[in-house]
Amino acid sequence: MPELWFKPTKLHFQTIHVRGNTNWVSFVLEDADETYGSGEITSTQLHREVAPVVARLANKLRGEQVSSDEDVLTLNGLTPNALEENVLLATAVSGLRCAVADALAKRANLPLHAFIRQQHGHDGDAAGKVRLYANINRSMLPDDNGPVDRSPDSFTQMAERAMQEGFTTAKCAPFDECRAPHQQEGLPHCAEAGLERIRAAKDAVGPDRTLYVDCHSRFDLNSAFALGDELAAAGVGWYEEPVDPIDEMGAMRQIHDKSPLPNAGAEMGYGVDIFKRLIDEDVLDIVMPDVKFCGGPVEAYRIGMELEPDHAGSVSMHCPSGPLSLLASAHATAAFENVLPLEHAVYEAEWRREVMEPFEEIKDGEFIIPDGPGLGGRVDPVMVELRGRRWEE
């Protein structure tokens, strides 16, 4: 293949209001020939604006012949170590790397998953669809009218809906009342409400299907030991982030050593090295790279290819955000032929599928990757006009 390059000259941002405090934020990087690439930088977990950082980094790309998504780092004088320690910067870099990869795949006239495999000498064709699991939590977060029902009955209803629509795995984050550290020994009283929600959701999911539980780092070493036993007794499929596995690696390793369940997490990590370390040092059984933080879809592919051959079922991509990041995540997941399903935040907005052009297509719990070069889709400008805004930095 002849050398491909992309010379970006234009940058604009767009946001779509979803519900409550949630907005899906993305951007488009374009060259003079109107070839473009897109990236999502939704920052609900950062509580800071990423767009100014993207604009500053993109200025170093303007007018340059960018031939690899890693040029985002080299042209800005950045190292993977620096990005491991700065999530805001890692988010901006990940979005830009996604946009560059999208544009280069368009130049090659290949779907992104095929482009990634070709660039890495990976023989064969990727599947055109990816299995998903249904994260029901975001559908029960506050909407524009305030808090919504998060009772066990509500968890039941959302889990039942997901199963009826063909998903075989659901996930919930039920421990609203808990905040570490906990003073009492053993299981804290605040966890009981969460366990009721879990039992209700698991009853709806049924014995032959799977329920994952995300703890959002609301526990500590002592309480995590006790909680793991309760989750195992409830029939949970994995135990996600009782503590932050990157910031509290030592504590997470101790939890992992005594856990009756597979431990998952590390959604905020950047780059292959941190995820490899978490698996090699027995901190986690399953790592969860997020395309918005880990370095974009090409880096996510590398993470999968580094870990899955020797540790099958050790990678499950994290994606509780908008349809653009789900699309990029699906390409990466298909490219490395993942074993575990990809996360999808269901029922957060009933009009979600209309955000993308073409419409997002999910059938029987599987994401259908659209035809076309690059990502194969974009955020529809009409939806931006209807539900958000567009701006330049």
Report what the structure shows.
With about 400 residues, this protein is α/β, with parallel strands linked by helices. It has 2 domains: about 10-110 and about 385-390, 2-Layer Sandwich (Enolase-like, domain 1); about 130-375, TIM Barrel (Alpha-Beta Barrel). It contains 13 helices and 15 strands. The strands form 3 sheets. Strands 4, 5, 6, 7, 8, 9, 10, 12 and 13 form a 9-stranded mixed beta sheet that branches. Helix 10 links the parallel strand 8 and strand 9. Helix 1 crosses helix 4 (about 85-110), helix 4 packs across helix 5 and helix 10 runs parallel beside helix 11.
Descriptive labels:
Enolase-like, domain 1, TIM Barrel, globular, 13 helices, alpha/beta, single chain
Give the SSE layout.
Layout: E1 8-19, E2 22-31, E3 36-40, H1 51-59, H2 71-74, H3 80-84, H4 87-108, H5 112-119, E4 129-135, H6 152-164, E5 169-172, H7 191-205, E6 210-214, H8 221-233, E7 238-240, H9 249-258, E8 263-265, H10 271-280, E9 286-287, H11 296-307, H12 323-335, E10 342-345, E11 356-357, E12 362-363, E13 366-368, E14 378-379, H13 381-387, E15 388-391
Parallel strand pairs: 4-5, 4-10, 5-6, 6-7, 7-8, 8-9
Antiparallel strand pairs: 1-2, 1-15, 2-3, 4-13, 11-14, 12-13
How widely separated are the two ends? 35 Å
| CATH architecture type of the largest domain | Alpha-Beta Barrel
Extract low-pLDDT stretches.
Answer: none
Radius of gyration: 20 Å
Supply the CATH superfamily name of the largest domain: Enolase-like C-terminal domain
